[in-house]
């Protein structure tokens, strides 16, 4: 009888604890499990830093990232890919997801970013501005037009009145930058934030037309988020003073919103 009663008590305790092992209690704030974040490729370094800090603050939670071009991520989400959070390099791609009914609440703009010309270390081609990209023999990489970095590049080029034919169109900004690092092109139009972690191999050339090609970066919890509690907590971290500091250290401009 005592053994049966003890077993019943043990079962009741496990039920109250959510069947969690005694040495692995659930977090008091309820943040646990995996949170899947779909984020623009240009957010890779900043979000990996914030992901580690999130996991340190919530030991029962794990952050998984899917980094790619924002247009590709938006397509994956609208086609049903399971994700908790979407952070886009452009409001256009966030609108695509929102129009599909996949955004919970209102997206928040967390940062801004602008293009620069990435050139090999030392700038051997002496590229000083956008006009130099149209010189004969200069090989240029751009992002594909549907990708936010591609849209920004074309806006800047049109403003400068420069027409060029890129030798490659990449699906995200990391791909365009890789072409410079590998010596396959003389220059690429990428984000300022992408050149910083590649500073050992690449220099950034600023140009005035970049001011009209600045992209806002919105973030949102998704409607069908498998882990909405952890999703909201991650978004709160990104929006916090700490999150803004990490983004600023990477070269992102403060949005003044979100």
What's the layout of helices and strands?
Elements: H1 2-16, E1 33-40, H2 44-57, E2 61-68, H3 70-78, E3 85-87, H4 91-99, E4 103-113, E5 115-120, E6 140-143, H5 148-160, E7 168-170, H6 173-181, E8 187-191, H7 192-195, E9 202-205, E10 215-222, H8 228-239, H9 241-249
Parallel strand pairs: 1-2, 1-3, 6-7, 6-8
Antiparallel strand pairs: 3-10, 4-10, 5-8, 5-9
Helix pairs in contact: 3-4, 8-9
Question: What does this molecule look like?
Answer:
The protein is α/β, with parallel strands linked by helices and 258 residues long. The chain is 36% helix and 23% strand. The protein contains nine helices and ten strands. Strands 2-1-3-10-4 form a five-stranded mixed β-sheet, sandwiched between helices. A five-stranded mixed β-sheet has the order 7-6-8-5-9. α3 runs parallel beside α4 and α8 (228-239) crosses α9. The chain is elongated, with a radius of gyration of 22 Å. Residues 1-26 have low confidence and may be disordered.
Order of the strands making up the biggest sheet: 2-1-3-10-4
The outline comes out as: elongated
Main sheet makeup: 5 strands, mixed
Number of helices: 9
Structural class: alpha/beta
Distance between the termini: 61 Å
The total of beta strands comes to 10
Helix content: 25-40%
Low-confidence stretches: 1-26
What string gives the helices and strands in order? HEHEHEHEEEHEHEHEEHH
Mean pLDDT, all residues: 89
What share of the residues does DSSP label as strand, in percent? Answer: 15-25%
Radius of gyration: 22 Å
